[in-house]
Write a structure and sequence with these properties.
heterotrimer, A mainly alpha (286), B mainly alpha (306), C alpha/beta (329), A: 286 residues, mainly alpha, MetI-like fold, 10 helices, 70% helix, C: alpha/beta, four-stranded antiparallel sheet, 12 strands
């Protein structure tokens, strides 16, 4: 506990706490990049003689540090390989969602009037539609796939960006430097991308960081329900689902993948908070 | 005030209309619902007659209007999976279970988060504040499905305090309600805390103290009443996430509510039921937000009189 | 004037900031008598508001605290009292009017509600109807027109001047012995200002309440106050009766303040303004805090904090803290 508190004082670049960065590297980034090299086993290989082995300090061996699942696959290796999908989905989903949301938010905030009302209404509707159900419905039509997950992610988060960007655009467009540019004859597009957008970068970055946690949990939830990343990829949500029926006897199958999710999201949230305090304190909301 | 309500109501109806259209279109994305209703060896005549019977040969917009007409009187079609019942019946039968669970979750959230948020602000920087902050952080980082499983494992399997799953009285509801409420507690605590911090700094709070008002009244009567607007507005969002949460939590705990129903219906390709569930959820969400807007006006007289 | 009712002795109030502990009220002493109006004059950051907040003990938590000194209300020291005990003093023995009428009142309660609350604190157990009647009377007393209807109005439905009167009504609800008015007219239109000052004068004539009037406006001081203290950088640099101080300003800051108030018969090319900025809050100042801006500063001024001594008018009550009152160069 003391170590935890102490490490909170250590700041990277003077602002970001070190501990979450380290945890994030260990749990997400390094495995995502180097799983092929450092995972102890092939995540798909079934060691049929070592099924349902407990983790190391609970009766297990060093060969399968976090235990094995129903088919004898090494949990640790599966978690490490699953990191890649968590990372990719969240990055791709966030970037695309941010692009869509920012674009629409800019248009709404700058153009005002009917267009703004329309876009904001669409945002409201997006929030009204239960995303998980939508995902379920779509998945039952076309089957689970990467594209589906990305689409659902974009669907869920673009609204946050749109709302925030619109609110700030509303303020920015009244500023003097915009008025001057307009008087000097700059086109709307130029104003938007040369004057307004650069001022939004901080907000967008912070918002994106804060949303990563949401996206990872969303992807895991979708996978858990069977409509996310398709089998047999060892996505973290799927790993938790794998162990659900066996929770009484073999708790480790669900526990460790869930811990991976928890640690990742926790670290990202802590980093996001610090980032926000540093770059853009007016975003102090949920 | 009346004008305000009417305006909000009409906005709600427009949103609802759009949602019904989206929902309606969803079922037609499969190509044709026919395929799920008839066995593979159906004759062309059977296909044709069923198509006509279901009105699927009519133009799209006519189908949509018919759909709306029927929905307005509560006719959402027949369930294909649970033969003999209409979609509406199936959904309504399961709705109370979800409402019970959701209600308990909301209760837990409010009763836990609001006092925690207020006292965190009042005792800013104290150990209480920091611990509440940790809880809030954890709450936003834990995926509900995993929390459900872990809770089940610790409290039902290992300690045996609660049953693991199924429908029943309070003891069956506690674990799933906590799993559902966890994230909301975190968000609500943070929101309440920051709102209170802002209000506690304001001049009128200072004046209340100067008047000699006792500290408890200063906190709850003067400060909280102003800060409350923020968590109240959040209830709209809360309603929405409760719905999505219900799907996951009901799955983990085998709680027979609308969330679990939706999953079963989708697996069983029962589109009328899926449609109905999605519509119910959307209406619920819109209603919740509408009520929040009204509550907003009640709490803040500045909105009422403008 | 009557006997002393409030005595502030060597008050030191500090703020515990992340950069260190800084004094905002630095060894301040003054007293106020029954029926008297004392002006506290200074610019923003001089510590005048902090002094007021210290007396009421509503300093910003958790950074503000009284480090040392005494505040004697009829002989009883308020410093060190528990919040509970101070609660008996606030609103009852001492009332306060804040500067901005637009933020002083709670926006979600009616004006009447807030006045009634003040009355109830001072008359616990009284029936609601009686309180309401008293509240209407209180509003009438502060010249709120149409009080019977206004009592159910919300703050945002009233003008600034009217709100400030309500705040005044709240301040006098407990028949306090001292009223602290922290720049109550700064946010009001000039015409309303005069009315408000007259209101305060009337209240004082009627009840004999002592008033501590904080302002940066010397015109008001001349109009309303009997005595004044001039504050700069957290310290009192000059004190005395209005006649003495205005007639023979002894501290260079006082002199500059008086010079910067233009009068109608002057022909000015530019308004006189004091060079420089108010002093920053630091904990280890050497010498007189006004020295950087003082046109008469000597070497000793930069090295030693000036002692208080008799001022130029010769009156015993007129004091100032300056090494160079004779204005030698």
């Amino acid at each position: 506990m003391g170590f935890f508190v102490m490490s909170q004082k250590l700041k990277f670049m003077g602002h970001l706490p070190v501990l979450p960065i380290v945890v994030l590297m260990i749990v997400l980034i390094v495995p995502a990049l180097f799983a092929d090299l450092i995972a102890p086993h092939d995540p798909y290989k079934a060691y049929l003689r070592n099924r349902l082995e407990p983790p190391l300090f609970f009766g297990g061996t060093t060969e399968f540090i976090l235990g094995t699942d129903r088919l004898g696959r090494d949990i640790l290796s599966r978690i490490m390989h699953g990191a890649r999908y968590a990372l990719v989905i969240s990055l791709v989903g966030i970037v695309l969602g941010a692009i869509v949301g920012t674009a629409l938010g800019l248009i709404a905030g700058y153009m005002r009037g009917r267009i703004e009302a329309l876009i904001m209404r669409i945002v409201d509707i997006t929030f009204a539609l239960p995303s998980i159900l939508l995902a379920l419905a779509l998945a039952s039509i076309s089957g689970p796939s990467f594209q589906l997950v990305i689409f659902v992610v974009i669907f869920v988060i673009w609204g946050f960006f749109a709302r925030q960007v619109r609110a700030e655009t509303l303020i920015l467009r009244e500023r003097d430097f915009v008025a001057r540019a307009r008087v000097a004859g700059a086109s709307d597009f130029r104003i938007l991308h040369k004057y307004i957008l650069p001022n939004l970068v901080n907000t967008i970055v912070v918002l994106a960081t804060l949303q990563i946690g949401v996206v990872i949990v969303l992807e895991a939830t979708l996978s858990f329900l069977g409509i996310g990343i398709p089998r047999p990829v060892p996505a973290w949500g799927l790993l938790v689902a794998d162990g659900r029926q066996l929770i009484v006897s073999s708790w480790w199958i669900s526990f460790f993948p869930g811990m991976a999710i928890l640690l990742t999201v926790l670290s990202v949230n802590m980093l996001g908070d610090s980032l926000r305090d540093w770059l853009d304190p007016k975003l102090k909301q949920v | 005030m009346l004008q305000f309500i009417l305006r909000r109501l009409s906005q709600m109806l427009i949103s609802l209309l759009v949602i019904t259209f989206i929902v309606f279109s969803l079922s037609h994305l499969t190509g044709s619902p026919i395929n799920s209703l008839l066995p593979d060896d159906a004759t062309p005549q059977q296909i044709a007659s069923l198509t006509e019977h279901l009105g699927l040969d009519r133009p799209y917009y006519v189908q949509y209007l018919t759909f709306l007409q029927n929905a307005a009187v509560g006719d959402f079609g027949e369930s294909t999976k649970w033969k003999g019942s209409t979609a509406a019946e199936v959904v309504l039968e399961r709705l109370p279970a979800t409402l019970k669970l959701g209600g308990l979750a909301v209760l837990i959230s409010v009763v836990t988060a609001i006092p925690m948020g207020v006292m965190s602000a009042v005792w800013r920087g104290s150990i209480f504040d920091r611990m509440a902050g940790v809880i809030a952080l954890l709450g936003q980082s834990l995926p509900a499905f995993w929390l459900g499983i872990v809770l089940m494992w610790i409290f039902a399997v290992t300690l045996g305090w609660f049953p693991t799953s199924g429908y029943g009285g309070l003891s069956y509801m506690i674990l799933p309600a906590v799993a559902m409420a966890w994230f909301q507690v975190a968000a609500l605590t943070r929101l309440t805390r920051s709102a209170m911090l802002e209000v506690l700094d304001s001049e009128f709070v200072k004046l209340a103290r100067i008047k000699g008002v006792n500290e408890r009244s200063v906190i709850w009567k003067h400060a909280f009443r102003n800060a409350a607007i923020v968590p109240v507005t959040y209830f709209g969002v809360l309603a929405g996430s409760l719905l999505t949460g219900s799907v996951v939590v009901e799955t983990v705990f085998a709680w027979p509510g609308t969330g679990l129903l939706a999953i079963d219906a989708i697996r069983g390709r029962d589109f009328p039921v899926v449609q109905t569930v999605v519509l119910f959820f959307a209406v619920f969400y819109l209603l919740a937000n509408f009520l929040v807007d009204v509550l907003y006006a009640v709490i803040d007289p500045r909105i009422r009189f403008s | 004037m009557g006997e002393t009712i409030l005595q502030v002795k060597n008050l030191c109030t500090v703020l515990d900031l992340s950069s260190g502990t800084v004094p905002v009220v630095n060894d301040v002493s003054f007293d106020v008598g029954v029926g008297e109006t004392l002006g506290i004059v200074g610019e923003s950051g001089s510590g005048k508001s902090m002094t007021a907040l210290s007396i009421m003990q509503v300093l910003p938590k958790p950074i503000g605290r009284i480090a040392s000194g005494q505040i004697l209300l009829e002989g009883t020291d308020l410093v060190g009292m528990s919040n509970q005990q101070m609660g008996q003093i606030r609103g009852r023995e001492i009332g306060m009017i804040l500067q901005d009428p637009h933020t002083s009142l709670n926006p979600v309660f009616t004006v009447g509600n807030q006045v009634i609350e003040a009355l109830e604190i001072n008359n616990p157990g009284t029936a609601r109807k009686t309180l309401r009647a008293h509240a209407i009377d209180a509003l009438k007393k502060v010249n709120v027109a149409d009080a019977e209807r206004r009592i159910d109005a919300y703050p945002h439905q009233m003008s600034g001047g009217m709100k400030q009167r309500v705040v005044g009504a709240i301040a006098i609800a407990g028949a306090p012995k001292v009223i602290i008015a922290d720049e109550p007219t700064t946010a009001l239109d000039v015409t309303i200002q005069l009315q408000y000052l007259q209101l305060l004068r009337d209240i004082q004539d009627e009840t004999g309440t002592a008033i501590i009037f904080i302002t940066h406006d010397l015109g008001i001081v001349a109009n309303l106050c009997h005595r004044l203290v001039v504050m700069y950088g957290g310290k009192i640099v000059e004190s005395g009766t209005v006649a003495d101080v205005f007639g023979a300003p002894s501290h260079p800051y006082t002199e500059a303040l008086l010079k910067s108030v233009p009068s109608v018969d002057q022909k000015l090319d530019r308004l006189y303004a004091i060079d420089g900025q108010p002093p920053a809050l630091i904990s280890d100042r050497v010498g007189c805090s006004f020295a950087p801006r003082c046109p008469y500063a000597l070497d000793i001024c930069r090295n030693q904090v000036p002692q208080e001594s008799d001022a130029l008018s010769g009156a015993k009550s007129h004091r100032a803290s300056c090494w160079n009152m004779e204005r030698t160069t």
